[in-house]
Amino acid sequence: MKERLYGQEEMEAYIEALFPPDPDLQRVLTGIRERGMPEISVPTGYGRLLTLLVAMSGASRVLEIGALGGYSGICLARGLQPEGRLSSLELLQDYADTARDHLAAAGFGPQTEYVVGDAADSLEQLKREGRRFDFFFIDADKGGYPRYLEAAIGLAEPGAVIVADNTLLRGRVADPLRTGPSVLAMRDFNRMLSEDPRLTGTLLPAYDGLAVMRVKD
Ligand SMILES: C[S@@+](CC[C@H](N)C(=O)[O-])C[C@H]1O[C@@H](n2cnc3c(N)ncnc32)[C@H](O)[C@@H]1O
User: Fold this and answer.
1) What is the reported pLDDT for 196?
2) Per-residue model confidence (pLDDT) at position 8
3) What is the predicted pLDDT for the residue at 79?
4) Which residue of 12, 77, 99, 106 could cross-link 70, Cys pair, CB 3.0 to 4.6 Å?
5) What distance in Å separates the CA atoms of residue 181 and residue 143, rounded to the nearest whole number?
6) Where are the domains of the chain?
7) Residue whose CA is closest, atom 19 of ligand 1?
8) In angstroms, what is the span from residue 2 Cα to ligand 1's centroid?
9) pLDDT value at position 161?
10) 29 CA from centroid of ligand 1 (Å)
11) Is 111 exposed, middle or buried (0-12, 13-18, 19+ CB in 10 A)?
12) What single string gives the DSSP state of each residue in 138-177?
């Protein structure tokens, strides 16, 4: 009998079912649903990876681009060093307020700041202020990714880690017939992570495409 090949969705469902309930993250998902916000937080296993990557890299100044309800924010904050801080850029005031409430409820209020507005402007502002970060998580509008990556490199400490979500756009990046603005931007982003001499990066075909990079010393 030929062995059945299990699909990515089945494997992800299996992994998600392994993790015990997490009240702080469950509060975020419930809050998002009750407020009618989009239910597009990172999955549980992905969030755990964010915690691990922040902790393993020893990061103490984390910058998130795209907060939504604070799910990935909590996962990032969980990996921080004791004196570490999370800064999060979010376009919408009510989403930033929701995320701030959820981070506070999870015990990370004093360690978290939200900057509201278009991330492109917020990143410029952080640069003008001379801010530096040692970990970045990019998860906002897909058309902005190349700009966000360039800005992240400009704000990065040597050796900083940059992680980005949705870099395969459900496979559309690999389809030559797809030429929409998000696909073109993501192809530029993926080319940059693989070729830019300032970065060592790779792209994992997990979830919707998980990019991991390190800014060279
Ligand atoms: C996929 S959701 C982020 C999910 C979140 N990282 C999580 O997993 O919990 C994308 C977020 O980016 C925000 N966003 C979209 N365009 C943006 C922009 N130009 N600047 C800043 N944030 C933006 C959206 O409002 C939304 O909250």
Assistant:
1) 98
2) 83
3) 98
4) 99
5) 6
6) 8-215
7) 118
8) 43
9) 98
10) 15
11) middle
12) E-S-GGGHHHHHHHHHHHEEEEEEEEES-TTGGGGGG-TT
Nearest 5°: the CA angle 103, 131, 41 is 30
Answer positive or negative: Cα dihedral of 129, 146, 149, 52. Answer: positive
> Atom 25 (ligand 1): residue with closest C-alpha?
91
Cross-strand pairs, 210: 204
Which amino acids bring their CB within 6 angstroms of ligand 1? 40-42, 66-68, 71-72, 89-92, 95, 118-119, 139-141, 144
Check if CATH label 3.40.50.150 holds for domain 8-215.
yes
Which pLDDT score is estimated for 61?
A: 98
- Ligand 1 centroid–CA 142 distance in Å is 9
pLDDT means per 10 residues, the chain with 217 residues, are 81 92 98 98 96 98 98 98 97 98 98 98 98 98 98 98 97 96 98 98 94 97
pLDDT of residue 129: 98
Separation of CA 21 and ligand 1 centre (Å): 25
End-to-end CA distance of the chain: 52
